DNA sequence: TCTTAAATGAGAATTATTATTAAATAGAAA
DNA sequence: TTTCTATTTAATAATAATTCTCATTTAAGA
């Protein structure tokens, strides 16, 4: 039932359930590292030789279109993806370029409160995410 | 004196002041549109034929390194830049992919207040920016 | 001026992404 | 089940974005 979590999501979106799609969604979810296509290929090539990069790009685009995953905004000029759809934020580590998740319920409440009162003229807000730029003390390699 | 604003910034960073650097910084500042290298080239090619794309990439990278400009986090897989360093946020228009500035002093106060109390363990915050995803009502082409 | 380290331009090289198309296959229907 | 067909995949060509290389030019200090 746990392994079927991915199958279910794909099926519910009206997409055909293929081993490639399931594997890509699984890896993206478990890596939880905002990987680009290349990084997903790297992980999958052991269990999945013959998986084409083009398929990875296609699949990620398709899953994003169906809102099963999202595109991550990054400063490195690569397409990056995220399987987490719940409200969370991103720590951008300046030295390494890594993007880590930052969960903060208090912050979420404050933001929701603020934007429920103050709206942006003509603009319908769908999602709010903080990019928090900074660096770890002591080169901590988290 | 106004035109020298750019010269001054470049000089203060310890960089050589070249016409190319001044022009690129000027265009980036005046466009205020989070352009990529290609878009800057497009604008400059009239007044500046012979300006190499490589020079634009180099210059943008150099200026970013010296913190005269910043790299913009985008979802389109391109390197984008911003000459505005003051605290502001970005509206990401879902249909067009455009990134617009969003200034909000009240919001800034709330964020500064919040993060001055609650720190992120081991992490030194340098900048906070909201990515506000959404869309304009009525296809408004701002 | 002269000198020199740094910057530029031109284009090659590399990397990232998209497009094309023949072969394979998921899933609906028989 | 087996058949059928629209979708999906793999392979690779094509394109787009970025970086690299290196000969030439130039900013700026002596």
Describe the structure.
The structure is a homodimer of 142-residue chains. Chain A is an alpha+beta fold. Chain A has 2 domains: 4-82, Winged helix-like DNA-binding domain superfamily/Winged helix DNA-binding domain (Arc Repressor Mutant, subunit A), CATH 1.10.10.10; 89-139, Dna Ligase, domain 1 (2-Layer Sandwich). Chain A has helices spanning 4-12, 19-31, 37-44, 53-65, 105-117; strands spanning 70-72, 80-82, 89-93, 99-102, 123-136. In chain A, strands 4-3-5 form a 3-stranded mixed sheet, with no helix packed on it. A two-stranded antiparallel ribbon of chain A has the order 1-2. At the A-B interface, helix 5 and strand 5 of A face helix 5 and strand 5 of B. The structure holds a DNA duplex (30 and 30 nucleotides).
Write the layout of secondary structure elements.
The structure is a homodimer.
Chain A (H helix, E strand, L loop, with lengths): L3 H9 L6 H13 L5 H8 L8 H13 L4 E3 L7 E3 L6 E5 L5 E4 L2 H13 L5 E14 L6
Parallel strand pairs in A: 3-5
Antiparallel strand pairs in A: 1-2, 3-4
Chain B binds a DNA duplex (30 and 30 nucleotides) through helix 4.
């Amino acid at each position: 039932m746990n392994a079927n979590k991915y199958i279910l999501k794909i099926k519910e979106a009206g997409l055909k359930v293929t081993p490639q799609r399931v594997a890509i969604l699984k890896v993206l979810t478990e890596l939880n590292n905002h990987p680009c296509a290349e990084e997903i290929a790297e992980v999958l090539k052991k269990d999945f030789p013959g998986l084409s990069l083009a398929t990875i790009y296609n699949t990620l685009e398709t899953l994003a279109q169906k809102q099963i995953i999202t595109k991550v905004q990054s400063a490195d000029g690569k397409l990056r993806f995220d399987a987490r759809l719940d409200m969370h934020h991103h720590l951008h580590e300046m030295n390494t370029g890594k993007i880590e998740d930052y969960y903060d319920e208090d912050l979420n409440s404050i933001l929701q409160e603020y934007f429920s009162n103050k709206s942006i003229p003509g603009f319908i807000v769908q999602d709010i995410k903080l990019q928090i730029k900074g660096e770890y003390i002591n080169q901590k390699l988290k």
